[in-house]
Amino acid sequence: MPRTLSKRSILFFSLIMLAKSYFAWYYLFEDGPTWSTWFKEIPFILIIFCLIEWFATKRKIYIYMLVNLLITILFFSLIVYHNHFGFIATSQVIGQAKQVGAVKKSIFAVIHPQYMLIFLDIIIISLIMLSRKKALAWKKSMSRPSNRRVVAALFCISLAICMMNIFPNQASMNENVQAEQMGILNYEAYALLADEEEEQIEFSQITQSVIDQTKSIQSQSKPLLYGAAKGKNLIIIQMESFQNFLIHLSIDGQEITPNMNKLADSNIYFPRFFQQVGQGNTSDAEFIVNTSFYVPPDGPATELYAPKELPSLPKLLEEQGYDTATFHTNEVDFWNRGELYRALGFNQYYDKAFFGEEDTVFYGASDEVLYSKTAAELARMNDSNEPFYSQVISMSSHNPFTIPESKYQMQLPERFEGTFIGDYIRAQNYADYALGQFIAELKQNGVWDDSLVVLYGDHRGLPIFSLEDEDEDLMKEILEHEYTERDLINIPLIIASGGVSTPSVKNQLGGQVDILPTVSNLLGVSLENHIHFGQDLMNQTAYNLLPQRYYLPTGSFVNNEELFLSGSGFEDGRHYTLSGDGNKPLKSTEDEFNRALELLHLSDSYVTQLPDREVKE
């Protein structure tokens, strides 16, 4: 390495970190690095390096290497996370690292070999350090004291530039835009240190009429189909990573989800239905469906809201004489589900301890085992004199979708073999096969005829940023248009029950928050004293407004015509028509943008002010 450069540790490592900043920007931001990248990243790095120069007298090179390693790990983690989820993670997200062990297969699936190049300098410098003669000479030159006045001046200038990057951009709604405006390291520091707790709306002011008015809907005094399924069991099936484009999809003449297709054709199918999950993903879907509240802004509902006395669907139905249970093949401690189930009021849960590990796919027993053992348990519950509510969580079609060959139920066309899209298609085909067995068992043991059955996807399966070029081409073939965020969050909803309605496709807009009020209406359960943020999709059909979080930037929403993605605010946001017709005039308004934010604020304020549960010893 050049002699003068090697003797200037602060310059040497600043150039290394600048290169790594450009590397990170290339993967994290749509437009990649620009001339301003150095201006947004280097000042923060110089603040740290100035402190090293000021206080470190011994082992300076090792301290520089440690800082280099820590920032490199941060950049690497952000790149991997963004590849999977599409946004810049913060300390709140990194705090969920305890879940990584349980989903390491999914994590490894989105780590591309080129990401490892960010560690190249650390390997090279470490090899140099192994040469004792070179290492001693270099460490000696690096240990030379710096001019303290120059270091102090550089520190002050760098701190001032960081403030210039942070403070003007605090109001940005889009987290990714905010990170780009501030710089990655400034954004991470701001997210860690800033106290951004929004002032809560007074609990007494949060009423159903206020929520309905904010949503621009009216309550129904005599709703249609009220009590059409009264007295029936309720079975809610949550399909892992199941996106709506799978319904009626055929590839080279092969139906991918024949059982879901039959359900959609012979029952009530909502194709314009959207996920609303947050950081807790699958567990957040369970929370939303059972409460009709939105997810919290900065963490999973299982962690932040489980300590609360949550009004919920299990509690509503228990008041009507229902037994309640939830079925999931993973360990109940994963994502703190045990506490969530207690908060929701389920009478009992069935997890890995019940389903065993005799036929494991990814993180628990296969869907075949899940459905077989659940069907037998539901038959037992059905023999009692009281109806039941059960939520069944499928999991075999979990990312990374590489199911065992023994589970293959279809032959993929050659162009799909070895691709992420192909693995997803095959996994969902298996999930559909197992579902078909479950339905057959429920019909055979008499549970199906006695039940209202609801099926929906929990969240997206195919993250946009994880797709290779060949995957994007395959998705374009399947969809006949570019795969966008509109397709990403579109999941199906199917409601099945004899006597409820004739088979139909309902084109009204809906989201996961709407399931509770919809099934409550069908079961004849009043929500007069139950605050909810969803609406009955059987009656309130003219308009809907679905705020989004986490997978899309804060301030994003879906209305009847569009998916709107916020920018710094409303004006620089992006519009995607739900029909896919880009020539239609823009249909999202700033009033809807403000109302979507207000709905989230109302939900946050309401849930956080609920009383804490009494924890039984």
Automatic annotation (TrEMBL):
Instruction: Provide the Sulfatase N-terminal domain boundaries.
Output: 232-525
Q: Which PANTHER family does this one have? A: LIPOTEICHOIC ACID SYNTHASE (PTHR47371), PHOSPHOGLYCEROL TRANSFERASE I (PTHR47371:SF3)
Q: Name the membrane topology term.
A: Multi-pass membrane protein
Q: Which residues form the signal peptide?
A: none
Q: Where does Mn(2+) bind?
A: 240, 282, 458-459
Q: Which residues bind substrate?
A: 398
Please name the source species: Paenibacillus wynnii
Among the Pfam families in the record, one is Sulfatase
Q: Where in the cell is it found?
A: Cell membrane
Q: Which family does it belong to?
A: Belongs to the LTA synthase family.
User: What's the protein name?
Assistant: Sulfatase
Give the stretches traversing the membrane: 9-29, 35-55, 62-81, 107-130, 150-167
